[in-house]
Design brief:
alpha/beta, Rossmann fold, OB fold (Dihydrolipoamide Acetyltransferase, E2P), 3 domains, five-stranded parallel β-sheet, five-stranded mixed barrel, 52% helix, 17% strand
């Protein structure tokens, strides 16, 4: 930082000295120095603003401005036959000289990401199949299940881990809260595990969006830039990304889709963990967390029993299974069991009650 400050001071001093020697304004030395200092301050502020801008955008702006100047000069040369003394022609030349570099500057800065080396090389690999980018967010890294999915080989393409996600993960790992610290360290361990897997391509992306402050919005912008998909288990990020036209791979939705299919009439063994909300009901949970509500099982808490599935309810929060204790399957009327299921769903608000 000291070198930056010294460079700025030397630059301002040089501009002030040039104004004193050359006197660009036909006024006293003090006013010339003031004018030079004002220009130097504007340049320093511009430099401070450009420091947070991606390097590819700066290069794109410079290239666009240069192309605009060349086009303006070419057009001016092509109008040699016009009357150069006409004020309208002079204004036209000046207008073209200002407009084309301005358009080149803005368009070059807007599309500067195309100068990113991976995308630039992609222009010369048109015959090769395009890569499918999967961008990992912080929540799915900490969750850890993404490593198991990668090991199975169901996730193809290149996994992209942005620098701003690594920074957020490091902040969590350095947190004073022991719980957050353990979660952050677990996320870093998961990344190391994924990087060591054979057949998994992992890329650390330096692309950033200084004008965007929220990490979720940065992920969306990166996904749009790379034409990739976001891998997450964050419900809010899932919805916002879909609204902005970005595809999302939600690990929670994958987990729900892989739960075993249970049909009414099938039998299964469950461990009754607690009593249900309705009279004489017991509640059990499958290995994947699916809630099972069993009629006539309140007295069997703490035991593993055989039940008959009566119905299955799919909700936005997961799946609920209703069943009867197998010894009472013949004695309990079907209508009474169905009514108990409806009452339980209404009392639970249609959402499985997890412990």
């Amino acid at each position: 930082m000291a070198w930056f400050a010294l460079a700025r001071v030397l630059f301002v001093a040089a501009v002030a000295y040039a104004a004193v020697v050359l006197r660009p304004l036909a006024i006293g030395p003090a006013l010339n120095v003031g004018f030079a200092l004002a220009l130097a301050v504007i340049v320093v502020l511009l430099e401070h603003r450009l420091r947070d801008t991606a390097f590819t955008r700066v290069i794109g702006a410079l290239i666009g401005c240069f192309v605009g100047l060349v086009l303006a000069r070419t057009i001016a040369s092509g109008l040699f036959w016009t009357d150069s003394g006409d004020r309208r022609i002079e204004f036209l030349h000046s207008f073209v000289l200002l407009v084309l570099p301005y358009l080149g500057l803005m368009l070059g800065a807007e599309h500067g990401e195309w100068l990113d080396p991976p995308r630039l090389l992609g222009l010369f690999r048109a015959a090769a199949p395009s890569r499918h980018y999967k961008i990992l967010d912080t929540s799915v890294i900490i969750d850890g299940r993404i490593a198991d999915v990668c090991e199975t080989g169901f996730l193809d393409g290149m996994l992209v881990i942005p620098q701003f996600v690594l920074k957020e993960l490091q902040l969590v790992a350095d947190s004073a809260d022991s719980l957050k610290r353990n979660r952050g360290r677990r996320g870093l361990d998961i990344l190391q595990r994924i990087q060591k897997m054979a057949g998994i391509e992992v890329q650390i992306s330096d692309v950033d969006f200084p004008d965007v402050h929220e990490v979720d919005l940065k992920l969306i912008e990166l996904a749009r830039t790379l034409n990739g998909k976001i891998v997450t288990n964050d419900f809010n990020l899932n919805k916002v990304a879909q609204l902005r036209g970005v595809e999302v791979l939600n690990v929670n939705e994958l987990t729900n889709s892989l739960k075993p299919v249970v049909l009414p009439g099938e039998s299964m063994k469950v461990f009754i963990l607690k009593e249900g909300r309705e009279y004489n009901q017991g509640v059990a949970y499958l290995d994947d967390g699916t809630m099972v509500v069993v009629d006539n099982a309140r007295r069997l808490i703490g035991k593993t029993i055989d039940i008959v599935v009566t119905s299955v309810l799919q909700t936005t929060a997961g799946k609920m299974i209703f069943g009867r204790f197998i010894e009472s399957a013949m004695s309990t009327p079907i209508g009474q069991s169905a009514a108990a299921e409806r009452d339980h769903v209404r009392s639970a608000g249609g959402v499985p009650q997890q412990t």
